[in-house]
Amino acid sequence: MLHYAVVFLVIALIAAVLGFGGIAGAAAGIAKILFVVFLVLFIVSLFFGRRRPPV
């Protein structure tokens, strides 16, 4: 998921350099959403991840 966020960020940067403001804004918005979803899933996995039973 983090990979897709970075891909959309690169697309947004390239579109902004080339002057496509609408596409750049949309791609940046998608990148932000994917990054937030990644952070939420990462934090949830830290708290509820598999724990090994004590030996």
TrEMBL record:
Principal localisation: membrane
Entry's Gene Ontology cellular component terms: plasma membrane
InterPro entries given in the database record: DUF1328
A Pfam family per the record: DUF1328
Swiss-Prot/TrEMBL keywords: Cell membrane, Membrane, Transmembrane, Transmembrane helix
Listed transmembrane segments: 29-49
Membrane topology (UniProt): Single-pass membrane protein
Family per record: Belongs to the UPF0391 family.
Protein name (database record): UPF0391 membrane protein DI564_09225
Organism in which the protein naturally occurs: Rhodanobacter denitrificans
